[in-house]
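[Automated response] Your request has been received and processed.

Submitted sequence:
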Amino acid sequence: MLFTYVDESGDAGISGSRTYSLGAVMVEGPRWPETFDRLVDFRRYLRSSFGVPVRAELKANYLLRNGGPLRPLKLSESARRAIYRSHLRLQAKLGMKAFAVVIDKQRLNAQRPGVDPRDVAWEYLLQRLERYTTKNSTETVLVHDEGDERRVRGLARKARRAGTAGSAFGVGSLKVPATRILDDPVPRDSRQSYFLQMADLNAYAAFRFLYPPPSGRIQVVPQQTWDYLASAHLLEVSGFARGPRAIVWWPRP
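Generated structure:
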């Protein structure tokens, strides 16, 4: 059995962020206790090396802008980049798997006016979970950040009844109920979950891989940051699309 942790990056409005993205981190159930303990050790390392409190919430927005619990520390850009990069590298070392869904809101609105990018992103994520769990004869518990409980619960229940998984070859769709997603998705406060914080970092790194940041002397999240996940990439989600590794990108340019 797996635990799949999901957090978002960006907003749903047309005039806000360029994309709406979901980052996912997958942890094998039997390895969860050991993985959590090693995450705690990692956070202790960050405390000794950078002064970051063990219980501080680390999300992309805070690392980009020295905000939230990082503000009093006044960390340099290079230090924040090192913290970000080490989170992604750690996931492969701990045997975790990661993928992301990135929705270009302007292109989505041009093709399907009025469609909420959150619905599209979650439908793609649920499709990929259904495919992966079915192929590997396993189940998953889905845990997500608080704030959109009703929407996520409704989409998950719809997927369980008669989920529509788009064909990998772009012709029609496949009616495949997502019966291996156990119970309703579980909302959690990301401040209380290292795994959700990693999912947030993955979501932003995936966005920056597809939409590189402006050039600058030091970049906290340069384009190649997504590649630090290395063997943690869940390649199955993009295996047939010839697109970016472990990223569902839609609509494609």
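Summary generated for your ticket: Helices lie at 32-50, 60-65, 77-93, 105-111, 117-135, 149-162, 194-210. The mean pLDDT is 92.
If you did not submit this request, please reply to this message.
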